């Protein structure tokens, strides 16, 4: 679909100029020096631009132009698009800015552009874009002399795009494509990803993104792209979750970056925090090796070995244990004072030859090998790099530390082995690549459980009574409960369920009960009356529950503007906003995903700590039940806090729902 845009037989630049300061001139020069097809500068009065015959309009050319690049003031863009459509053009780039990002007038003009594009079936990039670079031409107004390569960059912001081009130039990262998306009025990142996924010059897609325009499409289509090649994201604008009524814990905890992280994980992409991590991934992606999270560190410096293993632990990767037979073999090549273990210290007197012998022994181990050399009198980085170059295909990552490290890294790079200057960079790159999940397509079907819609009809929030009743429809257990308004009712219910009990103020609105002193625990016959009187004076209704002992877990749900229904979980109770150890997942959540979220947020460790065996399966059921509930009922925001997990079940004891 984008063939005419990225591989055109002819290009016209409308707004071309002889003034070398103007964007219309820089575009013509950049294209002229790189492009082999026909180039038509369009200018209202000039007969010639940069040595090329100029035309006063697209019509004057007299034949169809494949790609029209528009760099005229905003008021003229709609007319140029119409003219392009009449002349049969189906691909355009609108460099001009000053549209919806500026004012109402701009918004109107942008809508008109879209109308014209639809009428003539023109697909366009922008407006407000820097343009794009392909392996055969540069259609941007950037000066950068980009090195050819196989990494594609797709950037939502023009400024950030320019910065990334600069970065690519400085770090000598070779690019296949660079695409600045601009306002994405028509083509957005997903359209460009599809093109790049099938492009043979592109090995991986690196994308700077600020927001996802169409979250449903992102979730549905990006899995097909990551199945073909790695897609790495860096996100700008990592602030708080915006469009949320903060009536629940979920509202005050949720962050937009975490939801985006969950979405990227779901679609099988990689999210990095900064450009350094971006760059570190380039080498590891180029190598085509299947790295593993189990690592053996080989070095000639004990201190560096420790630093590396510290980072491995920080990034939740693991160190392998060497077998006894491997240790016996290694002892034969190590000096007497050295003990073979992981990290494997070949000792400060290790020569290139000792590295060679060690590599020969460990090459077949099913793990990633980080080989770190500190240049010493006995060995240089280049010597070790030459050794490592003989072991391509053995899951090796080199870390070269010394005066000759740049030459050593070049040797590794031409051998297809990823190389780094610092162990932390190597470990982080391995972490990112081994943590990629197989893409999952979220198929959402809303099939409300029978009777559930009756609970929510015409309401914007749910009372305690309705919330508790709704839980059972979705398989989430609640403790025995009742809502009472007289002391007699309270006594009779307590006698029925037995002591101890918990009393809470009961409200028709979601409230944080603990914060207003509305929860009293450990109630038996002796303090029943006083507790009841304290609470009934606050809200007029009291909820009584059987008191449970167990681990407190937080479950949150929200309906995100981009990614739709999502679930949060973490350690619960009053610590939820303090600890912020929260994992995010997109609905529908499978049992495996629920378990993964529990592991990530440390809920699983809490349930299994000191062999207490709290009910993991029941917690999974509660998460998947809540996933279904918010999908079915379109719930805007909810929390179950806490879900008390006992040794034989999990109970929602406090529930807040905003519809
Ligand atoms: N057809 C053909 N040529 C036209 C034209 C039309 N309809 N309308 C104007 N032109 C010519 C002008 O005569 C001028 O040529 P000249 O230098 O020979 O006089 C040239 O096109 C450019 O027009 P001009 O009015 O001088 O505008 P400009 O170059 O100052 O600015 C833009 C035009 C598009 C660059 C400017 O409006 C803009 O949007 N700048 C920001 C771009 C940007 O930052 N984009 C996003 C980056 S992320």
UniProtKB/TrEMBL annotation:
It holds the Pfam family Succ_CoA_lig. Its EC number is 6.2.1.13. SMART domains: CoA_binding (SM00881). Residues 468-504 form the ATP-grasp domain. Signal peptide: none annotated. It comes from the Archaea. Keywords: ATP-binding, Ligase, Nucleotide-binding. PANTHER family: ACETATE--COA LIGASE [ADP-FORMING]. This is acetate--CoA ligase (ADP-forming).
